[in-house]
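Morning!

As promised:
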Amino acid sequence: MRAFVDINIKPPVEDKYMQEKMANLAHQVGLSTVCLRFKQNTPSNEIKSSAKIFSSVGLDVAIGLDIFANSRKQLLKQLSTSRRLFEILAVNCKDVKTVMVAAHDRRVDLISLESIKSIRTKQSIIKSCSTNIELELMRILMPSGRTNLEQINYFSREIELANHYKVNIVVSSGAKGVLSLRAPRDIAALANTLGLSKERSLDSVSKLPIQIIKDNRNKLSKNPINSS
Amino acid sequence: MLRTSWRYLLLRVPSEQNISENDLKSAVSETIEEFFGVIGLSQISLRIIRYEPSKGRAIVRCRTESTEMLRSSIALLTKISGKSGSISTIGVSGTIKSLKLKV
């Protein structure tokens, strides 16, 4: 039986009631592991408190960091300080050169191409990418500036490119609240509809993220998480 | 004539919003129509079998071959009767009897 993971849940740290609701729903929809993703400089007590809420319902909790870097230098600095503290490092940059650096860096687990608008640029990044591409469902559900249709188009083009260049895709909800949390098989069904094969779409919400978390936990086993 | 094969989906519907059966059906149907068109809607042959608003659960039926379409439409649903809302699939089964075991 498959174990399912949502590798991108952004818990509202200031709202514990909402976090409890999210945790219960995550358990109800069949998730066994969740990766709670935080921004840089989130206080460690808030990270621990969120992790406690989600683990109290029986979920395996991993902690991740979202890196928004404006330059190569900033990215490398954040990677060197955060790699040993978090189980997942995800990069989302607007600058193409910075994304290129992230795509080649072994310390990066996931890169998001949300901010890259040009398909040609996406292609050149995916073509030489040695890390996993992350697709957030939130991009379609609550698009920032662009319409759903355009976002669905970008989504399916990224899937097409990743299929062509045999790059791994991880699909996540990117949920910031209970309304945007979705069942993993529903997310996989959507990825399947948008061009990912049935087996790969199921792997993108189960085997692949599990493997990433497992590998990173092995690497971090001598350095327990204690966020700054 | 070939016998139609059905799949039954157990859905979690937000219970605090007082959603009627018609609201639920129209929200799901509208999302399917928006993303797959009228042909997609007719292929899915959506039908609400049971709906318990107090428990926030519904059982819907669709054609087996269109299950993925229905599930992806459910993932894309963001509004129910004009208000923000979401639906999640809790289980899928070939019979209502076995679906009840998942509750």
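The CA atoms of residues 134 and 170 of chain A lie 5 Å apart.

Hope this helps with the figure draft.
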